[in-house]
Amino acid sequence: MASRAKATILDIAREAGVSKSTVSLVLQGSGLIRPETAIKVRKAIEDVGYVYNRGAANLRKAHSNVIGMVINDLTNPFFAELAVGMERVFQAAGIVPFIANTAESAVRQEEVLKSLMEQGVAGLIVSPARGTTPGAFRRIETAGVPIVFAMRRLPESRIPVIAPDNHRGAFIATEHLIRKGHRRLAFFGGSSDLVVYQERLGGFLEACEVLGIPASDRTIVEGETSRKGGMACLDTALAAVEPPTAALCFNDAVAFGVMLALRKRGLEAGADFAVVGFDDVTEAEHYIPALTSVTVDTAGLGERAAHVMLKMIQSRTTRAEDHIGAVSLAVRESCGPDRNARNAGMGDAA
Quick check: 143 pLDDT over 60? Predict the structure, then answer.
């Protein structure tokens, strides 16, 4: 029998009476091996004293075939669509994607990243959770594991980002509302600790500035980036003495919440209050009334993130160019009619 220090896969194969490839498949946990054969091989492993070093095995392959997709909120249809785009590319490339939902918890995110690193992942695509510190990925970068950020960036980070043009998207949406005659506008949802919030709010504020909406007629309400958050934002805004008549929402989930809150008050999006979302998830077009939203090529951005990751792995680099995707505005019923004619009739057109 082979000594414990020198035991090899060949020793196991000889002991079990099987081929080397069969032993390798058992060590990798493959489901292709018959249970009785796997039992025989595992007994041989114990008998010869072989210790399987998964990390060394991954190094021999240059890298594992597992890529971690760490998403901040898979309950949001936008991030689910993004993940589907990534997965499509990885499956075509024979890569196994591991998807984890951090539920906006930086603590949960740290646990997931630690576990994936222990498994020897080839790379990571991450949409960082709220509260992620700039140094959260330093250890992974030092280890030379490629990382791509999807949708969200961290301040002062050199990790490549795949994201839409948030500033422009918010600008054209706000411009649309102002051109339709709205003079008291709101920005609903999100929080200032997110770079994406600062970008979208920045586009909103620039449009207001350029098109003559004074600061006194702008309402900014931070909140959860969910339906619940949208409902709370609307309640806060409508409690003002001079409430807004239109809102750009941080994302579609917030917009859906605003529309639900309007309905609870006997009001309707479009007819009584203009609502614009951001992301244009599949549900937006089929909502009642259909939601006007900033269109982002969600699946396309997911595919781009996956292609960038594959290229980084093949090139054995941790560097790549940022990609900022084009945006447009899908105009639907939730914006309602043009108010300019009515405002002119009332003598208060700006």
Answer: yes
- Domain encompassing residue 213: 166-297+330-346
pTM of this prediction exceeds 0.85: no
- As to burial, measured by CB atoms within 10 angstroms (0-12 exposed, 13-18 middle, 19+ buried), residue 57 is middle
Residues 160 and 324: their CA atoms lie apart, in Å, by 11
Identify the bridge partners of residue 67 per DSSP, sorted by sequence position. Answer: 97, 123
Asked if residue 149 is part of any domain, the answer here is yes
pLDDT digits (tens, 9 = 90+) for 60-117: 444 567 899 999 999 999 999 999 999 999 988 888 889 999 999 999 999 999 999 9
The reply to whether 292 and 306 lie within a common domain is no
Instruction: Say yes or no: 16 and 160 in one domain.
Output: no
Are 320 and 148 spatial neighbours (Cβ–Cβ below 8 Å)? yes
Instruction: Count other Cβ atoms within 10 Å, centred on residue 265.
Output: 12
DSSP label of 190? B
Please say whether the beta carbons of 161 and 322 come within 8 A. Answer: yes
